[in-house]
Amino acid sequence: MTALAASGGVMRDLKVPNIVGRGAVPVIAIPTTAGTGSEVTRVTVITDAATDEKMLCMGPGLMPAAAIVDFELTISLPPRATADTGIDALTHAIEAYVSRKANAFSDQQALGAMRLIAPNLRTAYHEPDNRAAREAMMAGATLAGMAFSNASVALVHGMSRPIGAFFHVPHGLSNAMLLPAVTRWSIPAARERYAECARTMGVAAAGLDDASACSRLIHELEALNGELSVPTLREFGVEQARYESVIGTMAEQAESSGSPGNNPRIPTRDEMAALYREVWI
Ligand SMILES: [Fe+2]
Fold first, then answer.
1. What is the b/e burial string over 138-171, where b = at least 16 CB atoms within 10 angstroms of the residue's CB?
2. Centroid of chain to Cα 67
3. Residues β-bridged to residue 58
4. Which tens digits make up the pLDDT trace of 23-35?
5. How many angstroms separate the alpha carbon of residue 19 from the centre of ligand 1?
6. CB 145 within 8 A of CB 39
7. What's the mean per-residue pLDDT of the chain?
8. Which domains does the chain have, with CATH numbers?
9. pLDDT tens-digit profile of 167-221?
10. Cα–Cα 20 to 30 A to 162, which of 12, 16, 61, 277?
């Protein structure tokens, strides 16, 4: 709203590669989930109702002037939303760390976020009133937001937005559906980085070799989806024929968002289409 008020026109004019330079009024952001990190990013995502596209909008004009980050606002968040938003935050941290735009500054934020989120996500899901877990998740999600604002997200987010837009799958859930497969596909291009994610998340011992640590990471991401009851696309109610029919469009939209270009292994549209087919279960 602040961006549109400053520029006029319609939201579609503001999507990437456009840069939103300024907003009309300062925004104070108060997150009520431990997830998007929107309160500390220059990114917003708005669905174009005419085309079902989840438009990525970026620029300093979308950066809140202040954030009030209070984990108590998440205590009443239901388990499903806790899981979906929490996996989103974990995905931000992992993608920021393996991003081609990662740097020494964003690395610390991404690793710090993983350290907070990984051991607390299951607890926050199973025990909504667990204040220590809620606090760690909130701090982790905000840190992860800072990490990806400085390093960008990558292929999971690029492919996730079209699934969300076409099939109304919540953002964190479509990330979760993609995360194990996209991570497995991307590992060969950044084995050391993914191995460090596994160690930082506490699922691989410090001395474990990179290949074994990467296997542990995939295992953990799959186990997490199981424990947090992440449905498959089919279980969510996505119809297979319709899904098949939009795979080409989804790959095109994913590519044009620019996020896949930040991935350690950059996919062609055909490779994205193959990944979309792989996660159909
Ligand atoms: Fe996200």
1. bbbbbbbbbbbbbbbbbbbbbbbbbbbbbbebbb
2. 20
3. 19, 43
4. 999 999 999 999 9
5. 19
6. yes
7. 96
8. 2-67 (no CATH), 74-278 (1.20.1090.10)
9. 999 999 999 999 999 999 999 999 999 999 999 999 999 999 999 999 999 999 9
10. 61
CA 4 to centroid of ligand 1, rounded, Å? 22
Written as one letter, the residue type at 158 is G
Beta bridge partners of 202: none
**140 Cα–ligand 1 center, Å:** 13
Cα of 98 from ligand 1 centre, angstroms? 15
For residue 191, what are its two tokens? Answer: 């084995």
The rounded distance, in Å, linking the Cα atoms of 113 and 94 is 9
Q: How many CA atoms lie within 13 A of 3 on its CB side?
A: 23
H helix intervals, the chain: 2-7, 79-98, 104-117, 121-126, 131-151, 155-167, 171-186, 191-200, 210-227, 233-236, 240-256, 269-278
